[in-house]
Amino acid sequence: MRFAPTEEQTEFAAATGALLADTCPPSAVAAAWGGEVGRHTGLGDGDGRIRAAWDALVEMGVNGILVPEQQGGLAMSLDHLVGVLEECGYSALPDPVADSAGVVAHSLGQCSDTAPDVGAVNDTLAAVAAGSTVVSGFGSSPLVASATTADTLLMFTRDPTRVDPDAPADPAADRVVLLDRSEVDLEPVESVDGSRALARVRWDAASGACVAQGSAASALTDEAFLVAALADSALLVGLGRAMIDLTVSYVGERKQFGVPVGSFQAVKHHLADAALAVQFAEPLVRNAAHLMSGGVAVEAPGSIPTDSRSVAVSAAKARSSDAAKKVTETALQCHGAIGYTVEADLHLFMKRAWALARSHGDSAFHLKRVRRQLLAG
Amino acid sequence: MDLTWSDSEQAFRQECRSWLEGNVPAGGLDSGDTAEGFARHLEWEHQLHEARWSVVSWPEAYGGRDASLWEWLIFEEEYYAAGAPQRITQNGIFLLAPTIFEFGTPAQQDHYLPRMSAARDLWCQGWSEPNAGSDLAGISSRAVRDDEAGGWRLSGQKTWTTRGAFCTHLFGLFRSDPGSERHRGLTYFLVPLDAEGMTVRGFGRLDGDEGFAEVFLDDVFVPDDDGTTATMERGGILGGVDEGWGVAMATTSSERGLTLRSPGRFRATAARLVDLARDRRGESADSVLDAVTEAWLDAEAYALYTLADVTDLSEGRSPGARSSYNKVFWSEMDLRLHRAALDLLGAEAELDGGWMKGYEFALSGPIYAGTNEIQRNIIAERVLGLPRK
Predict the structure, then answer these.
(1) Cα separations (Å) of A287 from A104, A234, A313, A376, B304?
(2) Is B312–A275 a contact, with Cβ atoms under 8 angstroms apart?
(3) What is the residue range of A366's domain?
(4) Is A99 within a domain?
């Protein structure tokens, strides 16, 4: 029994954190803002990318963590990736590491032998490890972050958040394809987070390179959705930590009534509650990553028989989303008026958290998934 | 990450489970916080001791099994899953014993620990006073030096002493340096409740059980330690004179941390809650079923968090002030678990049944062992690093 990352995983994550501290400071995140929101706030005219950070991560091997060795990857596990994603969240990196290195690499790795178009799958895996930008979307016209700079898109016909969970999905209708950016119809839309580079993606399920169809596509869709929700959870834990640290630092310096505002008990209790929420969300994320990496769930008497992987991921996403939302409001309240501006860094983290807390299923959606399994017997 | 149990841990679990299956009293026991219930619980403690289950993590010489922290967790999981009785010896074995292991002389360890594991000495905690609760350093009960008689004379009043009316011994803090203030000049005393000058008055808790006591000390004599059994039977000092604060703090981290509230306990409550929710789901509002799910998730999160803590402890990394996170979380989780059950029961919740009694008990969690307001200050100051002033 050992509930902790390996020494190698801890060191890899720490090295990622150090690299991002250099290449992805809040000023770089602000400069990556673009579109109408970027102009309106006067922050940036960027495209949602910090290429210095992305290139450094690629060089370190981050993008190939889940990619098999044959395609130039490190063939490591989601256990390994979540620690890295927490660091990406901590620095509010806007680039789609969670998508390329997470959802896409994991999904394609699952069908590198079985896909109808094996060639496209393996080429894309190799491209991901080498730093190509591949993002994913669920449904016929999903909102996809970083879509405007993506080289390739991995598209799933079914959006698991929109399917009525009481009605069994028709597996025969599912299809998963890889499309070049030129093969889809991108309609840029404005996100509250100007670094999201968000677009509505319309695409033709009959086009592109086929990754899976029918029941294989259905299973792959469910799997990819779990990885997407898990990856968001890890980013949210990192964002939560970052906002707490920013706030602790600010309230330690800001003085009113002759003392730091952080010495007031009301402020202390707000921050203690925020820290508690993040603290008890993180083990759920780590546990979900372990199960999604093929690990065995801990055995305990009287534990309720459930589909442990899906429950574990939903537990992680529900709690990390709630924790991050709570932290955003606490952090803003403790910052006071300066937090209510685009001049302080806090908003960069808050707005990302608002977006991710509701992507790939919000807390109510995931709580319901847990509840259905728990109370079914 | 490796969330599997080793073969020997599995075997340990099986041994716990079979013994508990054969021995846990069917239908449970009356509350251990009443005189009759306490007597039945005492028999149960003797039964546990005879089968060497009373203190699994202690050395064999003191009645334990030298179990690892992991095995201790397993024992607790099995114990609560089996619906075994509450541990009336808990304040001794979980709060005092770790302190005796750390600060006791070898003679004290040999004297007190076997008697504690055998439930011959039953310990209660003498910390809080009428004017010193969460502010423990504000205590005024005093220990006066009597050089002529060769010992100390204790006077003052302790209160909120759990099961004080039924226990045999008290461990507590007394001001031994009359000129001292706050956490300086305190000494950690061990003293029998039948000593001359000691008066114990039990009183009802929120649920009416006589689970609390006031303890009045009027010139209670504690002789200097000469290493003999006869002297130790009359009490003694743990750690050095005037060094009681440091000794006591070692105990509070046990109380706030994982030793007092193992995850098995809450998982067992969560499993019962889920059973109740399955029975009642047709007549319950969605919001109530969501609250059940949230409370179950709490118990899962707490169990995983504890695995991370035990991993750290096993590898020599102490959680330190982080134990304040545990205390706030488990105590508020216990309330959420019971509140959800009462909401499922609806109008029947007011019946004086197990869930209502459990809810009343859970309400004490955020208050004892340092209120959760104090714990939040500790989290903010010692973990997050916010300024004290």
Answers:
(1) 21, 11, 8, 23, 8
(2) no
(3) 221-374
(4) no
Is A259–B294 a contact, with Cβ atoms under 8 angstroms apart? Answer: no
How many CA atoms, within 13 angstroms, populate the side-chain half-sphere of residue B344?
25
Query: How many whole angstroms separate alpha carbon B369 and alpha carbon B362?
Result: 13
> Which ipTM was obtained for this model?
0.96
> Do B98 and B251 meet the contact criterion of CB atoms below 8 Å apart?
yes
Q: How confident is the model at residue B352 (pLDDT cuts 50, 70, 90)?
A: confident
Is A318 inside a domain boundary?
yes
Contact A52, A21 (CB under 8 A): no
| Distance between CA atoms of residues A255 and A262, nearest Å | 8
pLDDT tens column, A216-240: 999 999 999 999 999 999 999 999 9
DSSP B340: H
Contact B383 A275 (CB under 8 A): yes
pLDDT digits (tens, 9 = 90+) for A140-162: 999 999 999 999 999 999 999 98
The residues with which B199 forms a beta bridge, in sequence order, are: B216
A302 with B271: Cβ contact below 8 A: yes
B253 contacts B323 by C-beta, under 8 angstroms: yes
Q: B151-158 and B212-223: which strand pairing?
A: antiparallel
Active site residue B255: yes
Per-residue pLDDT tens over the stretch B108-146: 999 999 999 999 999 999 999 999 988 888 999 999 999
In a domain, A75, yes or no: no
CA atoms within 13 A on the CB side of A137: 27
Residue among B255, B294, B350, B360 flagged as catalytic: B255
Domain assignment present for A171: no
Contacts of A269 in chain B (CB under 8 A): 373, 376-377, 380
Question: Residue A354 — φ and ψ, nearest 5°?
Answer: -60, -40
CATH of the domain at A307: 1.20.140.10
Task: Specify the residue for token string 């226990």.
Answer: B167
- By Cβ distance, the residue of B268, B297, B304 closest to A3 is B304
Domains detected in chain B = 7-88 (no CATH), 123-244 (2.40.110.10), 257-383 (1.20.140.10)
What is the distance between the alpha carbons of residues B217 and B195, in angstroms, rounded to a whole number? Answer: 9
Closest approach of chain B CAs to the CA of A114, in angstroms?
A: 30
Residue with tokens 């981290």: B253
Residue A212, SS3 per DSSP: strand
| Residue B259 structure tokens | 């030793």
Q: Which residue of A has its CA nearest to B333?
A: A280
- Reduced to 3 states, what is the DSSP secondary structure of residue A164? coil
Q: Taking the CA of residue A55 as centre, how many other CA atoms within 13 Å lie in the half-sphere pointing to its CB?
A: 4
Pick the residue from chain A with its C-alpha nearest to B312: A4
The partner residues of B152 in beta bridges, in order of sequence, read: B145, B222
Number of domains in chain A: 1
Return mean pLDDT, chain A: 95
The confidence score (pLDDT) of residue B318 equals 77
CB hemisphere CA count around B209 (13 angstroms): 20
SS3 B219: strand
